Amino acid sequence: MNTFVGRYRKVFLFVLACLLALILTSCGNFHLNLQETIDVNADGSGTMGVALGMTQELKSLLSSQGANLTQELSSSLSKGSADGSNVKVTQWVDGDYSWVKAEKDFKSLNELNNSMQSNSVFQHFMITKTVGILQDEFTLDAELAPLSRVQNPNNGSSLIDPSAFIQFQVSVSLPGQVTQTNGVVNANDPAHMVWDIQSKQPVSMNATSTTWDWLNIGAISFGFIVGAIGLVVLLIGLAPSMFGSSGKYLNQTAKRSSVEPASSNPILDLHDDVLEGLGIDDLLRQVNIRVLHNIGRIYKKPNEMILMWNDSNSQQRFIDIEARGDGTILIDGQTLPATRESAKSGILAAMKKHGII
Question: Residue ranges of the domains in the chain?
Answer without folding.
Answer: 4-212, 214-263, 266-357
